[in-house]
Design a protein that fits this description.
four-stranded antiparallel sheet, single chain
């Protein structure tokens, strides 16, 4: 999904980006460790991943589905 705001937070890191037209994003040169990744887009429920592990010299992939925000309380069925 394009134009999703992606926030990556770590011990000494705060990076904000948007996904590209294919829904991808890339944050280069992160130090190894655990990060919190938050994704949100207007009209959709935000998602948060609390412990995304990054290793030195590696690539960390993350697939996060976003679901339409509900206007009323209830459940959403995918």
């Amino acid at each position: 999904m394009a134009n999703v705001r992606v926030v990556v937070d770590g011990l000494k890191t705060h990076v904000e980006q948007q996904t590209d037209a294919s829904g991808a994003f890339r944050v280069a040169d992160l130090a190894p460790g655990a990060y919190v990744v938050t994704l949100d887009r207007p009209g959709f429920a935000g998602e948060k991943r609390d412990t995304v592990q990054v290793t030195r010299g590696g690539t960390t992939s993350l697939t996060v589905p976003l679901h339409p925000a509900c206007l009323e309380e209830g459940s959403y069925t995918d």
